[in-house]
Write a structure and sequence with these properties.
Largest sheet: 6 strands, antiparallel
Strand content: 35-45%
Shape: elongated
CATH class of one domain: Mainly Beta
Radius of gyration: 49 Å
CATH topology of one domain: Immunoglobulin-like
Structural class: alpha+beta
Number of strands: 11
């Protein structure tokens, strides 16, 4: 028994634990050749490996730049134009002319109830005022009409005229109707008003006007004038009358 314990044991020597080696940089080299774990592969390796996928078309970039510059030029032009117009408006302060009816004379008025024919002459006197300090007005063409309600009775053209700054001008519009047909309700309406001693007429005008200020290029505008409820003294048997109630201010618009 003692002999067996004293005999040397033959076989492989016992393995000694491996000692971690360190490289000169201080990183451990145990069981790996790299100091860090390798990163995961890209999610889309096909597109990541395509060298042409992320390249931008140079012509598309130039076209986009050109379009942006065009838009910038247009916006700048609008801003500059608006600024110039605003400055001119501040300097000139343009105002519309003022129209006032000073007189209305009706003569040879005749209305046939049986045939619905109307005849007569209307002479309407206007006072036109240019309130502008730096703008002259050129009335190149003026069309005028006389109405009863919404029905036209006669039409005429007013001669052209010119107004300097702060000017007051008197003009006349002469209308004539000779056996003009009107609707039956117009006949009944006029006869009903004549029984009360007066008939109400309306006058409208459309004028082509040039606004001229110094060396600035003239601006053309259509001017619309409406003079309503011009009451003329006409009795049932009378064929002439004049404006009652004094002068009447007209509405003016563009």
């Amino acid at each position: 028994m003692n002999d067996q314990h004293s005999r040397p044991v033959t076989g492989y020597p016992a393995a000694t634990p491996a000692q971690p080696s360190t490289n000169p940089n201080g990183y451990s080299t145990t069981n790996t050749a790299y100091p860090y774990v390798a990163p995961p592969p890209p999610h889309h390796p096909y597109y990541a490996q395509n060298p042409y996928y992320h390249q931008q078309n140079p012509y598309a970039a130039q076209r986009a730049t050109f379009i942006r510059r065009i838009f910038a030029v247009i916006i700048a032009a609008f801003i500059i134009t608006g600024t110039i117009i605003f400055i001119v408006w501040l300097i000139l302060r343009p105002r519309l002319p003022e129209f006032r009816v000073g007189s209305v004379a009706v003569s040879n008025f005749n209305l046939s109830s049986s045939t619905s024919l109307i005849s007569g002459n209307w002479d309407v006197g206007f006072t036109v005022r240019n309130p502008n300090k730096k703008i002259k007005l050129y009335y190149d063409h003026i069309d005028a009409r006389v109405f009863h309600g919404s029905d036209s009775l006669a039409a005429t053209t007013v001669p052209p005229f010119y107004q300097t700054t702060r000017n007051m001008t008197t003009i006349k519009a002469s209308f004539a109707a000779s056996g003009a047909y009107v609707d039956r309700r117009v006949v009944d309406g006029i006869n009903s008003e004549r029984n009360s001693g007066s008939v109400s007429f309306d006058v409208s005008m459309v004028a082509m006007v040039r606004f001229k200020a110094g060396a600035w290029r003239p601006r053309r505008r259509f001017l619309r004038v409406f003079c309503g409820d011009l009451r003329v003294g006409l009795t049932g048997n009378g064929n002439r009358g004049s404006l009652i109630g004094g002068a009447s201010q007209c509405r003016v618009g563009i």
